[in-house]
Amino acid sequence: MNKQSVTYLKKTYTCVKSGKKLVWKKAAKVSAPVPTKQKVVFTPWATEFDTQLMIEAALDATNEYFGEVKPSNSYEMNIDSAITADDRAWITRVLDYVNGAFSNFEREKVRVFLGSNHDWSANTLRAENLWVGDRNSPFPCGPGLLDAYCAERNIVLLIYSDMYSGKTKTRWDVGRRSTPAHEMFHTVQFALAGPNVGGSEPTHIPRWLMEGSANYFGYYINEKLGFDIYLSGRNQEVTNNTAYRSLYSLSYYDNFESNPYGIGQAATEYLVASAGFEKFLNIWKFTKSEQNFEKGFKKAIGIDISDFYSKFEVARSSMKIGSS
Predict the structure, then answer these.
(1) Do 80 and 114 touch, CB atoms closer than 8 A?
(2) For residue 169, what is the DSSP state?
(3) CB-CB contact of 138 with 119 (8 Å)
(4) First to last CA, the chain
(5) How far apart are CA 143 and CA 95, in angstroms?
């Protein structure tokens, strides 16, 4: 029986000779095996699949791309004194994380303006000889009736006027939580593709892709930092969105009359799940180098944009876009 081992109560005992006797000695605690997360396998450009599988594949691919992120505050903050300390803290945390996630990109220093009302935003930007959005509008980012969030090459504007004026009781709902990361992602798009990314052909990138990808990223960061689960935002923007009851094709959502955010978010999931997050970002990078969106898309993703549109239309029922 000498040298024989047994395990009892998660400890291993070995039988050894001690003098003329055999004794059990050297008990050691047996560590429980650490469970490893199975990598989600999604068949690229599948047309019939479980929605959750596609979403998990996209989120996993995004996590894999970023790995361990070191937050960075290498941007400039301009904060309205009315913003509470708690709100300042969580918004700064998001901005630091996103800024750190893209620290390997060469881009201009971003200036963030965080305010509680539109007068503050207009006065502050005018004092800096800056503006965002329509130059003929009395306020940056719109007419000043609702919350305002927008971004340009090196500027992010976040105005939470509805919440701070008491117009809404929802306060930090899943949508508002996503806006700092959403708008910061726009600056990444501009850094990769250049200032003409939203301009005219041939470097014009459709709004469904510009806004849908920022939507996806905003809700991804919500979950990553523990504010809410990704599906909360996804259900609100995609599955339960009545704007998609009419089945317009994805290519239609490239105007300011439609709602490109949710359908573009689903298209982003499909792209990232099928091609990975790095290739997805390369759409902007190669649009700039090729000076053409269609050529840039194919170089990055490996299929023509027309082919992608066709695959998407077949697969959209599996994505639960605007389902009842």
Answers:
(1) yes
(2) S
(3) no
(4) 68
(5) 26
Q: What DSSP assignment string belongs to 77-120? A: EEE-TTS-HHHHHHHHHHHHHHHHHTTTS--PPPEEEEESSHHH
Distance CA 224, CA 29 (A): 34
pTM, 2 dp: 0.87
pLDDT tens, position by position, 59-97: 999 999 999 999 999 999 999 999 999 999 999 999 999
Q: Which residue has the tokens 């089945």?
A: 247
Using 50, 70 and 90 to split pLDDT, how confident is the model at 23?
A: low
Residue 149 token pair: 């969030």
105-124 burial code (b ≥16 CB/10 A, e <16) = eeeeebbbbbbbbbebbbeb
In total, the chain counts a number of residues equal to: 324
Residue ranges with strand state E in 174-219? none
DSSP-derived secondary structure for 29-78: EPPPPPP-PPPP---TT-SS--HHHHHHHHHHHHHHHH-S------SEEE
Rounded Cα gap, residues 155 and 187, in angstroms:
7
Return the amino acid letter for 166.
G
User: Tokens 């005992």, residue?
Assistant: 13
Q: CB atoms < 10 A from the CB of 166, how many?
A: 7
Greatest Cα pair distance in the chain? 99
Yes or no: say if 212 and 266 are a contact pair by the CB < 8 Å rule.
yes
* pLDDT digit string, tens, across residues 257-315: 999 999 999 999 999 999 999 999 999 999 999 999 999 999 999 999 999 999 999 99
DSSP-assigned letter for residue 142: B
Cα 323 off chain centre by: 23
H helices of 235-276, where? 260-275
User: Alpha-carbon distance 137 to 298, whole Å?
Assistant: 37
**Domain range annotation of the chain:** 1-33, 37-68+190-324, 70-172
